[in-house]
Amino acid sequence: MIEIRGLVKQFPGAAHPAVDHLTLMIPEGEVCVLIGPSGCGKTTTMRIINRMIEPDAGSVLVAGRDVTQVDAVDLRRGIGYVIQQVGLFPHWSIADNIATVPKLLGWNDARIAARVDELLALVGMEPAMFRSRFPRELSGGQKQRIGVARALAADPPVMLMDEPFGAIDPITRARLQDEFLRILRSLKKTIVFVTHDIDEAIKMGDRIAILRDGVLVQYATPMTILAGPADPFVESFVGTDRALKRLALIRADAALEPLGPVAPAHAIAAQASLRDALARMFETGADTLAVTGSNGEVLGLVTLAGIRANTRSDDATNHCQSPYCL
Amino acid sequence: MLLVEAWQFVAAHPERFFGALYTHVALSAAALGLAIAIAFPVGVLLADKRRLALAAITAANIGRTLPSLAVLALVMPVLGTGFVPALFALTLLALPPILINTCTAMQQVDADIVDAARGMGMTRVQIVREVELPVALPVIFAGIRTAAVQVVSGAVLAAYIGGGGLGDFITSGIAMMALPQLLVGAIPATLLALGTDRVFGYLQKVLTPAGMRAR
Predict the structure, then answer these.
(1) Strand A2-9 and strand A57-62: pairing?
(2) Would you say domain B2-7+18-209 falls under CATH 1.10.3720.10?
């Protein structure tokens, strides 16, 4: 768990504080996305957590310990760190790059070698093929996979990720996001994820903290933010298509209605989103689709009316504004 | 014909020739060694301090524009003549390229690499030793290579202030209008400079970390 209390940071010569009395609680095992326009303080906040930047006031507690009371070097070795430009060491092999923190922690060679292979496999790269290559021999997407593997190497409970997929082409980015979510499901990490891409935030975040000029504007689950933006700034930030973005978060089988006497001509898989269902309806002209399970069995129906009911936001406007009230 | 006469000169005075060659190499090696010992650590330390580094690089650049002969001439009134003043002058000559390359190479190490190293919990010393120095090494060594060639060629001029070396044959050859004797100095000095460039070029290639070598 990460607890941020009354955090303030003002850079010399800046008109307003980069971070202005920020209070935020990130529950253990969740992905918290910090998002906002450039200069909103998201990266500064992230960098205060591992003391790459020292705050002017306030405190950050990681697993109950105030980070300023811990040696900065020890603190950082216990927190995974991924940046947009990856920053792989060009003179080290892929294996050595992944082994950076384990080596700093003094692991023995056999344990390091086993861990490197395990991580390469985890990020979908054949160990025998890649371990002795050098960073310049990899594509952008492969480099960032290694960046993630390197951050995971010593199995830190907390990871900081600063726009990790920002410099990667959209197709590879989507694939890396999916893979990372799959990895996270098996690993349970507390993650602070900085991005300026709202779609990425909705996809990756268990919770999204929207910042503006160093101030927390809204902190809630993607669903809550899409259903009830706290103010016009958030509303414009999430975009006019927020109803559709919401549908993308709901699985078809969550809007299941009982099967009627007539079976629909078209079907959609249970794990597809309601946005996919809507697209399918427009494509086929049908306003009712059969929802099929993994073996092709029909589980029920989704209807246009049912989808419409899920886009209305009036049911979610009474959400709590306090960062401690989740 | 001249070459034969030059060879005959060497054969007639082997101890003089090899003595001069030895002095030449010793003078160059000592000057280069001293210059590395001074400029390398200073360059590494200054790289962190933007203002000081800029001042040092500017000063080094001015030093670089001085002709080698002028440096030797400027040293003579202060330190007199002989091996030590020549060593001093040649060291001065070798400092700028090493200092400039060390400073800029350390400064030009990709900021993201350093940020990643710091963020993963490397200490300042570990960052310099494990990351910045190896990444900067090829450029630093290019400076050492330039300095080495400059010193070996500059050492010919040491003869003007009594520093000895192969330049002795050249100056006396000119003074006595004895062309073969002039060649006894000039040919080995040229070969020495070319050889130094080749050897240091090879070392530069070997010292470049495998992941950073041009394919």
Answers:
(1) antiparallel
(2) yes
